Amino acid sequence: MPIKLKTSDAGFEERFAAFLTTKREVSQEVDDTVREIIADVRRRGDEAVIELTRKFDRFDLDSSELRVTSEEIAQAYEKADPATVEALRLARERIEAHHRRQVPEDKRYSDKIGAELGWRWTAISAVGLYVPGGMASYPSSVLMNAVPARVAGVERIAMVVPTPDGALNPLVLVAADIAGVDEIYRIGGAQAVAALAYGTDTIAPVDKIVGPGNAYVAAAKRQVFGKVGIDMIAGPSEVLVVADANNNPDWIAADLLAQAEHDQAAQSILITDDEDFGASVEEAVDRQLSQLSREEIARPSWKDFGATILVNTIEEALPLIDRIAPEHLELALDDDAGEALLQRIQHAGAVFLGRHTPEVIGDYVGGSNHVLPTARSARFSSGLSVHDFVKRMSILKLGPDQLRELGPAAIAIAESEGLDGHARSVSIRLNL
Amino acid sequence: MPIKLKTSDAGFEERFAAFLTTKREVSQEVDDTVREIIADVRRRGDEAVIELTRKFDRFDLDSSELRVTSEEIAQAYEKADPATVEALRLARERIEAHHRRQVPEDKRYSDKIGAELGWRWTAISAVGLYVPGGMASYPSSVLMNAVPARVAGVERIAMVVPTPDGALNPLVLVAADIAGVDEIYRIGGAQAVAALAYGTDTIAPVDKIVGPGNAYVAAAKRQVFGKVGIDMIAGPSEVLVVADANNNPDWIAADLLAQAEHDQAAQSILITDDEDFGASVEEAVDRQLSQLSREEIARPSWKDFGATILVNTIEEALPLIDRIAPEHLELALDDDAGEALLQRIQHAGAVFLGRHTPEVIGDYVGGSNHVLPTARSARFSSGLSVHDFVKRMSILKLGPDQLRELGPAAIAIAESEGLDGHARSVSIRLNL
Asked: Where is the active site (chains A, B) (predicted)?
């Protein structure tokens, strides 16, 4: 049964602290295997990638078949349901419109001594996008990763997606095409990450790798970090729903289960100030569970990691929200109450306001990004955005007057650090 | 001797490509040692930290002595040269003024269907700052890491600095105090990173760890990434100076050596369109080398990794700059030529414009940050800024009308992904 906590209970603090540290994923020690795979791909390139694909994906190909062809993409459109293709186009349009507002602005200014400072943003040239195969091969994730890169001005987006036993979700190809992905390779695992980071004869290296994957992919991203940039390491995801009694318990139950059906390690948490309402939601969850096609995933998620927390007032939810630092936060409250809470929250990935904003809308067609910091990492990171695909070049320009004004302080610090050469690079210009 | 390349030579492309991949650091395989240290600190906390400090820093302390006291900070001011303290204060003031302009703005807007979107930026609550001990224990780096965190609104900044044999640079304490660091612990290495990430009885855990360190520190940061955020992994640094013949060769030589004196693995590169000028700079480098107190560092750096590249026109420098993606780029050119080049550069950490902006000013008192992407990582990352200490919460709010408009597309995608529970969370609100 999901855990039940009440802030009014004597042992609350202890139980809540324990709840926060619950491990939801068994960490796999795959570092050594991954290190060997990366070294092998660096050494033998395509040949290693092909061998490893045969081994792990039970799928035979040669170098010329690594890349998905435009014919295959055209065929994928034919296999796809037209209404879904239209829905993906709407999603792309809305994601693009929202992310365009994130493009950061360049800046130049003169300060009070006349020194010029500023910065210029430029796009990363080439980005690799990892898309998982099998059950978690989501077309929506392709859009969420590729569209912001395109908006940022990335010139080349290379996607990799494993095709276990040769099977490839046609909607993933359609989504890649709609998002403007330039190249698609039917490979996955640590070997795909290594190929993107170091390049092979067939695959040119990229500058940054984004996208979720299993433990091997995560370990590979960690190991190639530095050679290329990477996005966050995705953990099991979660939703926290803060709901008062003026909600339909069935709606809230559906939101909790939408999270739970992702993964047995997913977590759904309800915070409410009404004990009866909480009980109604739990009953609704039980009722709806048996109607889900993914019941065998959602049920253990809810049973093992689900929680309801009863608070005396919604106000009391605030510190709990920040400590949970949820990936997704629904505030199913009246407008005023939701907005007031929103302004005071410190740590959350994405906030869904009001009773008509199920988190699922944000997964697909809201326009905001569904790649969000999981497992409490909203404490230190943000959801994916245009910012992840641009970088800032800082600019400094002095004239002789400003150099004279600032020079002596620079020399003093340089000398205190034992860096004579630094001091000289300034003093030589000041005839000191 | 430093390498000499000419774009007009037949073998240029091949030699330049080889130059770009020159390894400047031997990568140390320290992962297993670091993994054990982190596990030990997680298990035994303070006790492990104290033992490891005794072992690696030859320094004995108990839990109550881990933290530097306010008396010690007061004493540090007494030991410090007042002019240097003033210079550090000027530096802090200028760094703060510049970084205030980086604070990002919140946003809320309604789109064409009336959906509300936006985001809110909030600060990371607690940040750990790693400061190396010994020769590379720079007060300027303390300012460059701590001031942006303070400007971002970080509530708690905890600094760690190893004190080999008990020795601690008083200016590091002064800089920490000037920057507003809240806590200072005299520990270093992987054990300090582990203590910051997981906490001990004495040291509360932080949410993100920044600052440079040796191979052990870098490996530890890589391993704790995910549990906490980390900044970039710093590699050996470099300067690229693009200079025409209208420069004083002594000035340019001094700039090249200011970089070379950092580290034997540092790299100084000159690109010029005038062969005689290039030769004059090289002669000036040789002359100045013997006058440097850190000659034994600067000479091998220049000899092993230095380079001059002769181009036919400054225009030709552009693609070379982007491929080098230098940490520091000096454009010692006329204003017009420098500005024109700047607007077209894609990859560089920081650009210093004109003949009176030696890179060293940016190290200390320019106001911009000196923590910059090294070793070609400017292809995918930026210098340290306020952005590294804030994160973005995304906001979405629909009313019934917007949910009706977007709902069917969300349901279509959810069903195509086999996520019935997602579809239901929308359809249940639409009475579908």
From this structure: 327 (proton acceptor), 328 (proton acceptor)
